[in-house]
Amino acid sequence: MNKMLAAVGITGALFGTALVGCSSESSGEGSGDGGKTVVELAGWGASPEEEALLKETLDAFEEKHPDIDVKHEVIADQYMDVTKTRLVGGEAADVFYLDALDAPSLINTGVLEPLNDYVTEDFDVEDFEEPLLNAFKKDDTYYGFPKDFSTLSLFYDKAAFEEAGLEGPPKTWEELSEYAEKLTVDEDGDGQPERYGLGFSKELARQFYKFQPNGAQVVDEKGKADFASEEAIQALEPIVTMYQDDKTAGLPSDAGNEWGGDMFGQGNAAMVIEGNWTIPFLEDNFSNLDFTTAELPTINGENATAAFTVAYVMNEQSEVKDAAWELISFLTGKEGMEIWTSKGFALPTRKSVAENLGYEEDPLRSSFVAGASYAQPWQAGENLPIIMTNFDNQFISALLGEQTLEEALKKAEETANKEIEAAN
User: Which of 307, 297, 294 is nearest to 365 (CA)?
Assistant: First the structure.
C-alpha cells in the first residue's frame, strides 16, 4: 500500500466495492457541448425539494457562465469511501462536498486545492460565520467554503409548556433540568414516563459541545482521545443524572422512536435538542403540533451549541481549476447561496444571506442562525471516527448504570488511543 493510499485510509477490499459506478471520463477544456468547459460536481443525495433547489442554483450558474457545463453526480452510498478511492485513482470530481467531520484528514493528505489564491475581494470572506469558515481552514489557508449548516436548538411543545405553567424556554442547563421534571408525565409512577421532559441523543456528536464550557476537550494536541478528565465528567453528569436518576430525560428508543424529531412529534418528549432538518419533518408529518425553538441553554454561563456544516472543495488534480473556482465561488457566493437556502431546508453560512432571507427574525430558524456565531463545528482531528465510536460504545453503558460515567469514559479513552496507536 503506497503512502497516498494509506493516508486516505483505503483498503484493498474497498477498491473492490467502492469503484463500482466510478466514471471513467475526465473533465477538461473543450469536452462539453460546443467546446464548453465541463466541471464535474459530486455530492450525496438529498430530498426531491433540495435536489430541485440545487438544479435551480446550477441553472443560474450556467446562465451566467455560458462557457461552462456542470456535470452533477450523486454518489448514493459510501460517499467518502467512494470519494477517497477516486482521489487515489485520479478520477474524483473537480468539485465535491466535504463534511467538516472529514475535513482535517483530507486536508492533511494534500488532495485538496488551496483556495487562497483564487479568492478576490468581492467574494467577501468576512461575510461567512467564522466558526463555519474555520472548519475548512488550516494555517490561514482555505481548503473549502461552507455551503450550508445547522446548529442544534431546543424544540419545545407550547401546549405542554402551558399545561406545566412554564413561560418561555429554559435559559440555563439547571433550568432545563427543572423544566424537564415539570414536563415529565409518569402517571403509573413506574419510571417509564408516558412523556419525557427532554428527549436527547447519546452520541458524541450531540454531547461534545458541552465539553468546552467546562474546560474539557475531545482530543489533545496530538490528536488522541482526551475526554475522560474530571471536567469532561462534570460536563456529562447532568444528562446522566436526568436519565438515570430523575427519569426526566429519555432516548428516542425508550419511547419506541427512531430519532428525536419523531419522539417530539409523537408527543413522547416535550423538549428535544435537534437540528434545523427537524423543522420540515415536523411540518410535513405533524402539522397540528404547536412548537417553536430556542437557543440551547447556557453552560456555566456560556452559550454553546454544535454546528454541522459542509463545504464545496476543489480536487487538487482537477484540470479545470479556474472553471471549478467559478463554480465554487458562485455556489458559496451571495447569489448562489440565496437560491440554495431560500426554502430553509439548509441554512446559509453567510450572514448577509441569512439577513436577506429573514432567517434572523424567523420564529423557528432564528435560534439556529444565532448559534452559528459561537457554535463548535463537529470535528476533532483525523482520529475522530475512532474516538466517537469508542465514546458511543461506552457512554450508553454509563446511561444504563452498567458502569459509572468515570469508568465508561476512561475505558472509551484508553481503547480509542490503543486503536489510534495501532493505526499509526
Answer: 294
